[in-house]
Write a structure and sequence with these properties.
Elements (H helix, E strand, L loop, with lengths): L1 H24 L5 E4 L1 E2 L22 E4 L4 E7 L4 E6 L1 H6 L3 E4 L8 E6 L40 E4 L1 E2 L10 E4 L4 E6 L5 E6 L8 E4 L2 E6 L16
Antiparallel strand pairs: 1-3, 2-5, 4-5, 4-7, 6-7, 8-10, 9-12, 11-12, 11-14, 13-14
Keywords: Signal
Protein name: Sodefrin-like factor
Organism: Meganyctiphanes norvegica
Length: 230
């Protein structure tokens, strides 16, 4: 009968869906990631050192359905490390700036595909204006009349470092074109090197985050104002 045929097709459809799920799991490798948060009172393990560059803590998590490891760098200075789901990887860029419009602190989210790869602080996301739902950026495009800065710089490389001294971490790369000082909306300072060409002293805002580029070694050791503009 017609009803029996419909039931048969429904059963076949369920079995097909189950088969597709099983096929998608074949060859899938569980991902092990650092798992911590600098805030207390959440489901993830509290670790005050979770925000350290080159994190190497003991808290980890393994998920068979994860496609990578993730980090969230919050504007208030907190850091979360965990896993990246297939849905997040499909729906969002590798660097995604989340502006929650005051419901919670905005944050930069990034992810990487390897086990325990989420030990860093999304530094690559801060070298160019990040993706955001409401960008207010001013970008610099080199032209034939303006030469890029000299290649090869040493830059301060640190997170939440309002001042620098002889103990502050330094990074050198022959491909660095500028050093960058970033100030979040909560006045947390991030200092890194950048592969992007910008004029010396070029500053811009992305949402409430301020970026300032300079073109000489160690030049990002100077504080910038959060309302710095081009």
């Amino acid at each position: 009968s017609y009803i029996a045929i419909r039931r048969l097709f429904a059963i076949m459809d369920q079995k097909l869906n189950l088969l597709m799920i099983l096929i998608s799991c074949i060859g899938a490798e569980a991902k092990t990631c650092y798992y911590c948060y600098t805030k207390e009172g959440y489901n993830s393990p509290y670790d005050p050192d979770c925000g350290n560059p080159n994190y190497n803590g003991t808290n980890t998590i393994t998920y068979s359905t994860a496609v990578g490891c993730a980090m969230q760098i919050y504007d208030d200075g907190n850091v979360f490390r965990g896993t990246e789901s297939q849905r997040y990887a499909d729906e969002h860029d590798a660097c995604q700036y989340w502006d929650h419009m005051g419901t919670e602190p905005a944050n930069m989210r990034c992810w990487c595909p390897d086990d325990l790869c989420n030990s860093y602080l999304c530094e690559e996301c801060f070298t160019t204006p990040p993706t955001t739902d409401t960008p207010t950026t001013t970008t610099y495009i080199p032209n034939s009349t303006q030469e890029p800065p000299n290649k090869g710089l040493s830059c301060y490389d640190c997170f939440d470092c309002p001042t620098v001294d002889e103990s502050t971490k330094v990074a050198y790369d022959e491909k660095f074109l500028t050093c960058v000082t970033i100030m979040t909306s909560h006045e947390k300072i991030i200092r890194i090197g950048s592969y992007d060409a910008h004029p010396d002293g070029h500053c811009y805002l992305v949402g409430s985050v301020s970026y300032c580029h300079c073109t000489s070694s160690f030049c990002n050791g100077i504080n910038v104002a959060i309302k710095s503009t081009e």
